[in-house]
Amino acid sequence: MNRDFKRKWIRAVAAVVAALAATWATGAVWDTYKVMKMTGEMKTVCVGRILIDLPKEAQVELYGQWIEGFDIDAFAESEEAFTKRVAAREAEIRAKPDRLGGNKNMEAVSEVKTESGLAGKIFVHSRNVSEGTESDGLTIERYHYEGVALEAHVHGNGVSIDLTAKDYDPDLAANLPRLVSQLVPNPANRIPTDPGFCLDRAYVREPLTAKQGERITMAVGLPGHPDIGINVDTIAGTRPDPRTLLERNAVSRARRPAALNLLATELRAAPRTIAGFAGDELVRQVIESNGVFVYGFEWELNGTEDNVLVPDIRLAMVTGRGDGGPAPSSLSAPAAMALWDRIASSLRVRPAARPH
User: Fold this and answer.
1) Greater pLDDT, 21 or 312
2) pTM for the full model?
3) Do 231 and 350 share a structural domain?
4) Are the beta carbons of 310 and 301 closer than 8 angstroms?
């Protein structure tokens, strides 16, 4: 390669690199502008006991709702459809034989009507019994365990709410009607002014304690950015993980082959306090097997076992989701970081959520 040609070749490569850098910078600026526009108008969503701000056009799904051992599902339904569905469910339970092959599968049916305008039925059915002997090597003891299925189906203000548990301690069956009495329909998912726990289309008024346990998950999609997913999971009344997010990440990196670690760049990995919650933040850029760049964001509060106002909170955002596998991120790193910071920094406890 002669000297003139070499100089021309170096200048050409430099020009290509400069053009790519300029294109990336222009794209990053444009992406950041899109994020500014996207977050110019936000809406506040109540998830359990916390509030979080999301872009106005965000599509929100709340699920995995659980309190005191009961799965809770709320949905829009007419009163007529509700009445037919509950009647069919009652007939279905009665038609099943009990554990001895008899016709006493349904043990109790009670009507329920609450101050908040909910009305419906509670079913106790499908008792199971387990008994026998067990030994610790020195002594032999007999055991006898019983469990029943509990269901509450209530309706009001265009909302149906189902609470179910498959194998519940019969001695604690009174937990269900008490919990039902605290439910309030909330069809538009407005932010409640009463203290309590937000569900989808409903909320539970206080009092609630950490011993009862409570959990909810939120999934968020952004129109125009189908590769981006946002999740919030909050749970109270459980023992915290003994290791923090950053500690688990350090262990994971130490176990992975060095070549794999080269594909994941940590853009942030440090403690981060949000609204007084001292949590951990981890932000990574990952090169997937098909060569595309994606970004992952995590913030965790490793909550407490005995305080519902300091629950375990896990906030996450990912880019690059595709139907056929990883897809190029629709946002550049600076733009994705700006979106993450706007959403993450808005997380806080709902003021009215503080128990009396």
Assistant:
1) 312
2) 0.85
3) yes
4) yes
Question: Residue 252 contacts by C-beta under 8 Å, 6 or more apart in sequence?
Answer: none
Residues 236 and 109 in one domain: no
Q: How many residues does the chain have?
A: 356
Q: Does a cis peptide bond (omega within 30 degrees of 0) precede residue 355?
A: no
Integer Cα distance of 157 and 137 in angstroms: 58
Q: Would you say residue 2 lies in a domain?
A: no
Could you read off the pLDDT of 265-293 as tens digits, one per residue? 999 999 999 999 999 999 999 988 888 99
Token pair of 230, please?
A: 């946002």
Structural domain harbouring 252? 35-68+188-356
Among residues 153, 181, 209, the one where a domain terminates is 181
Instruction: Calculate the alpha carbon distances from 250 to 98, 239, 264 in Å.
Output: 52, 22, 13
Answer yes or no: do 83 and 226 share one domain: no
- How many other C-beta atoms can be found within 10 angstroms of the C-beta atom of residue 328? 15
Which of 164, 232, 162 is CA-nearest to residue 201? Answer: 162
pLDDT at 4: 62
Q: By CB neighbour count within 10 A (0-12 exposed, 13-18 middle, 19+ buried), where does 312 fall? A: buried
Domain limit, last residue, from 141, 164, 181: 181
HSE of 221, CA atoms in CB hemisphere, 13 A = 8
